[in-house]
Design brief:
single chain, Tick-borne Encephalitis virus Glycoprotein, domain 1, S-layer family duplication domain-containing protein, 3 domains, twelve-stranded antiparallel sheet, mainly beta, S_layer-rel_Mac, nine-stranded antiparallel sheet, 505 residues
């Protein structure tokens, strides 16, 4: 009996200690289940050097704490929030007097384009009503940004509500065009000021923590009345416009890091593999000193995604886009004529400028704009348009098309551009293969990363029963890794007490 009593006393002592620790933890957190921190982030535009803007993820939606044009990002109004509408690097082409709809009633108009002075008169409006205007010069890189600031936004003045970056001006025989390659916009007219006690869903704002500098920009602390917790962190994010400096990637290179366990290149690792598909480098069909990676996947040619600024050895061996075109055929396009590239892709010579020896090309998919570029042919060095796109299977700056211009020709009636080489991938249908994915009757067993331009990597497959499939897919046979957390229906110390009681009963 004494033994049982002693054991029970020990158990009781342990429980009291645990309870004390639990009470201390409860006191320290004050029942707060969610802290939303504000962080600074880089603009995506390479032309906005050393600038950041604050952003907070508030239960799934991105909001921008109000900040001023003349202050640093550490001086933000953490509880005065405007929803982020736009942060993109899309290209907009506006003619004289043309307007672009920015959604939510906001619009942006190129009221007048002055080619001689290289100036554009812009107007910003909301629901058709004038908000602001500005004459923006494009004669040097230092002043190609229009930053719109407004007063009396939730009681604050000189608040940044929109940024616009001008890429270039173009003049043809009849048309004057301005290119915009980045817009950042907040829904400032619907901004709100949060106060302690305000509710967002099942959360109640408990504390407003002001920022002190760019490393500590403040936070919003919420209390959850239902017991569940959600993490809302305010983090810095980059502008998506490629013309604004100090770009940092939004997404980690998960393909390379996630497969490191399976990518050791040894004989033992591939000893029982039925088929190994190696990535090799090959020449473009037109005269060029460049090469591109290609993998023959059971009879079809696929391109492992690669970037424009990296060497050919730095490829994503398991992220594949089918090769559509690689030819040295000659195409002749008149002013405004479009070329069908198959699979819904098209290339249009929107305007040919003989005097400047320039062609304005546009690349589209299913009739929707993808990219455009003014290509000069006055030297042999710059006659290739390399189309690179972001967010192709989570990767940025991916080469998706190359077009080589041979020459321009002007007749009595027509202006014509000669194209003597096109290379194109089906990037919109690209896929990411994972270990366990099936291609036909084969199952992906190993992903062997490349090390240099001589060893570009490989995909190792194991033969399985036949599956009706002729192209890579990550939908069939995928191996999905699920991390399961342990959920206890009752606190562990109560279970422990029950165990001790039953043991010595």
């Amino acid at each position: 009996m004494k033994t049982y009593t002693a054991v029970l006393l020990v158990a009781l002592t342990l429980l009291l200690a645990v309870s004390a620790d639990t009470a201390n933890a409860a006191d320290n957190t004050s029942s707060i289940s969610n802290v939303c921190d504000v962080d600074g982030t880089d603009y995506k535009s390479e032309s906005w050097s050393n600038e950041q803007y604050p952003v907070i993820d508030l239960f799934g939606d991105k909001y921008v704490p109000l900040f001023t044009a003349n202050g640093n990002t550490g001086n933000v109004h953490v509880n005065k929030l405007a929803k982020l509408i736009l942060d993109n690097n899309e290209t907009y082409t506006l003619k004289d007097g043309e307007k672009v709809d920015l959604s939510n009633g906001y619009a942006f108009e190129a009221k007048q384009i002055n080619i001689d002075n290289e100036e554009i008169w812009f107007e910003f409006s909301k629901d058709g009503k004038y908000i602001a205007d500005q004459i923006v010069s494009a004669n040097n890189d230092a002043n190609r940004t229009w930053t719109v600031t407004l007063d009396n936004v939730q009681g604050e003045n000189s608040v940044v509500v929109m940024k616009v970056h001008i890429k270039n001006l173009f003049v043809g025989a009849e048309t004057r065009v301005v290119w915009i390659d980045g817009i950042w916009l907040t829904d400032y007219t619907n901004a709100t000021t949060l106060k302690v006690g305000d509710k967002i869903g099942e959360f109640t704002l408990d504390k407003i923590v002001s920022g002190v500098n760019t490393s500590n920009m403040g936070s919003l602390v919420f209390e959850n009345t239902t017991g569940s917790s959600v993490a809302c962190n305010v983090v810095g994010t980059n502008y998506k416009c490629d013309s604004w400096s100090n770009v940092t990637a939004d997404t980690a290179n998960t393909a390379d890091t996630a497969s490191t366990v399976d990518t050791t290149n040894t004989a033992d690792n591939v000893s029982n593999i039925t088929n190994i598909c190696n990535v090799v480098s090959t020449d473009y069909k037109w005269v060029s000193n460049e090469q591109y990676p290609v993998i023959d996947l059971f009879g079809d040619k696929y391109i492992p995604l690669f970037t424009a600024n990296g060497n050919i050895g730095n490829i994503h061996v398991n992220k594949l886009a089918k090769l559509i075109l690689d030819n040295n055929d000659t195409y002749t396009l008149k002013d405004g004529e479009k070329l069908d590239l198959s699979n819904g892709y098209a290339l249009e010579a929107k305007q040919i400028n003989i005097d400047n020896e320039e062609i304005w090309f546009e690349f589209s998919k299913d009739g929707k704009y993808i990219a455009d570029q003014i290509v000069s042919v006055n030297t042999d060095d710059n006659r290739t348009w390399t189309v690179t796109l972001d967010n192709v299977q989570g990767e940025n700056n991916i080469v998706v098309m190359k077009v080589h211009i041979k020459n321009l020709f002007v007749g009595t009636v027509d202006k014509i551009v000669w194209i003597d080489g096109i290379w194109l991938t089906d990037y919109t249908n690209a896929t990411t293969l994972k270990i366990g994915d099936k291609v036909g009757e084969f199952t992906l067993e190993k992903i062997v990363s490349g090390t240099n331009s001589s060893n570009l990597g490989s995909l190792a497959f194991k033969k399985t029963q036949a599956v009706d499939s002729s192209s890579p897919t990550s939908e069939e046979g995928s191996v999905v890794s699920i991390n399961k957390g342990i959920s206890l229906s009752t606190p562990w110390h109560l279970d422990f007490l029950k165990f001790i009681t039953n043991k010595f009963r």
